[in-house]
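hi support,

uploading two proteins for the ticket. first:
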Amino acid sequence: MVKAEPNKPLKYSIFMPRIWHGMPPHVWLPALVRNRFDISPSRLHHVLGVSAFGPITAVLALAQHLGWGRAISQTPIENPPVFILGHWRSGTTLLHEYLGLDPQFASPTTYQCFAPWHFLLTEGLVTRYGNSLLPDRRPMDNMKAGWALPQEDEFALMNLGAPSPYLRLMFPNHPVPFTDTLASDRFEPEHLQAWRDHLKWFIQALTYKTRKQLLLKSPPHTGRLRILREMYPKAKFIHIVRDPRKLYPSTMKLWNSLDEHQSLQSKTDQSRLQTFVLESLRTMYQAFERDRSEVPDNQIVDIRYEEFIARPVEMLSEIYEHLELGDRDAMQTLWMSKRDQEQGYQTNKLELSSDQEAMILEHWDFYARRYGYLDS
């Protein structure tokens, strides 16, 4: 069994917004139909809440489109995005937070990803008066939560109606949908066009609002490297890896925590979840390793989580130099301040049995060998 030290109790309530509360009816209802309304009785209040608010979301979405639709569609992307790539729980969030200290960058916020249909219209009001609706800490790792903190754009794509495996959060005991979107060479043609259209729109909407170069982080993008380069040929990529013996239990904890607080089903089939976790890394990294060979060296850099947490300021400086991201000297003070703040942070203590370790190294052998973790 994977055991974790208990975190500080989290502030959750039945009134807390769920990730998919920003779905309008034309996205929400088909998701329920596809899964045959297989909802646990204890989660019915979520369904009623989203269904009741759905028409309001639709009206707000229409208002945003009428007010800003043309401006968004005409917004040029003059500075291609910087993408942070890496498997779930590999340190992408921490890296995102460090890089996000640079005022030249803008990242999608939690609110923008939860409410992509109308954030231009409603973000100011909700983020000012709605902080009490969110927990103080994320359930999977005890890191800070908040409407204004950087978030994965995959959640926005999901709420916009793009094909995304994150829809498994609604029905974790059903087959994971849209796993073809985890690798650039596996996309179904109809899924690819819809996915590209939604990502393009969201990037333009964020650029219209912020007028800055975007810094984006979503683990599923790791397997989409070729597609991202086709869309943004001058984009830059920061790729982070971590010991697979740490990745596996932490990723299982991540999805179990999200399922506990987000899903429409009260219990998660651990066998089904394990299969998804094991297969996802293989799918994403087979595509990543194939596509990476086509990326110019000055557009991508690889780092190890273990080295990053040991000397974050030095590694960030190296990243800036390699990718030519700007004035690294000007960022030293901010980076050192965050490093000092992180000194007391304790990661979850997760234990593996010898059988689990053997299973991980068997299934993820190529990853462990490629990034030098077999002998550590």
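and the second one:
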Amino acid sequence: MDIQVSAGDITIAQADTIIVYAFQGSELTSAAQAVNKALNGAVDDLIAAEDFSGKSGDQVLLYTRGAITAKRVILVGLGEADKFTADVARRATAQGMKKASDLKAKTVATAVPGTEQDIAAAVEAVAEAALLAVYHYHGQKSGDSPASLPESLLIYIAADEDVDAAKQDVQAGEAIAAGVQITRDLVNLPPNVCTPAYMAQVAGEVAKEVGLKIEVLEKKQMEALGMGALLGVAQGSETPPRFIVLEHNADKANELDTVVLVGKGVTFDTGGYSLKTRDGMSKMKGDMGGGGAVIGAMRAIGALKVPLHVVGLIPAADNMVSGKAYRPQDVVKASNGVTIEIISTDAEGRLLLADALAFASRYEPQAVVDIATLTGACMVALGGVAAGLFSTDDQLRDQLVGAGLRTSEQLWPLPLYEEYGKTLESQTADTKNSGGRMGGAGVAAIFLKNFVDYPAWAHIDMAGLAGIDSLSGKQENPYVPAKGATGYGVRLLTDFVRRWQA
């Protein structure tokens, strides 16, 4: 979709559809007021007839009968004015764009939702939401993919606003949306397509597109580094693993703060010999959602030219059952020398993260954040509303929580109680990889802490939020697909990095 910016009167827009907004209580935005006047009070008539209230989610369609250039107007409710946020703008924009797409509109004009607000954030939110709302995954279906509509969007700002600045805000929204779309595609792909090698290929394309440095480690290189935890998981599969390293501002690593993002990339998880149930296994192509989120976030970060040294690490492997597969009671050694007794081969994601977290130390980072579809326990605790957050540093925790609130990719802080470690004590190794069902999310976080030796670390357990599973409590969101991959984590991590404070 081509997105442009214009300043002035939306009623003269050369578009077939206009989207405008109103707050609950019939408070029209300036653009809606202009449309109402041009249509001889048609919006007033709708409100008087109680056919439109302005509540969030409220929507009505008007035909202009030649009174203005556009043939139709979509009026969208914003809810209560004192509860307006950038995410309200995203949702309202997405709602209008979905309706325009359903109507097969080719050219759309919209005004920035709201009144008293940060125009830069608002324009960025509109561009981002418009692109995310019309995302479509065609996959391996035969036949051509349906045309993507609308083809163009014209965002109107007030006559006294800076159009050139707004164009830069549009570019920021486009960069973020592109990162989310890459992640959605990766998570949606079948596991025989989205292999570790394919993830590395996509990461290479992303690196070339936005100027990232990339290195992809293969099995022999991982063996030389002693990555026995990752390789233990991978050994049961005929599909070889990959360890993907993406770097933004690699040439300025000595000048800038360093933040490392780590994403779990299990491209399919059978559970290994601790075999999942039929239903439990049926959505496991999405177990690389954390790795996908890091690739998408690194794409956005590179495009946005964030003034920070950012490293993305994606350990990628299948977890399969075969005569070569690792077993319960095996002992593996991670690259930092910690030995791990395998209790459950279905607690495999933390083994990939173990070697990746140890690898992160070489960058001497100010902070490391890992993200993973890690535990069913976190899904039980938080459902589809928020991801669990564990952190060794309160400032890092608060920065991530803030990013979650701004992006509506919510996080809920959970405790890193050392007592959880008691369940991981082993008679034959330094630690077990699983401590049983009780407190599973916290136990997994304490396990990961064995591989952390930097000032600040946070672990995000996003189980259930990648979007392949349907969870109770999942909130409907017009710019997030109801089915398939959500792209969760890209906007969260990108916002966190953009607002980084040491």
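thanks. also noticed: The chain has a mean pLDDT of 95.
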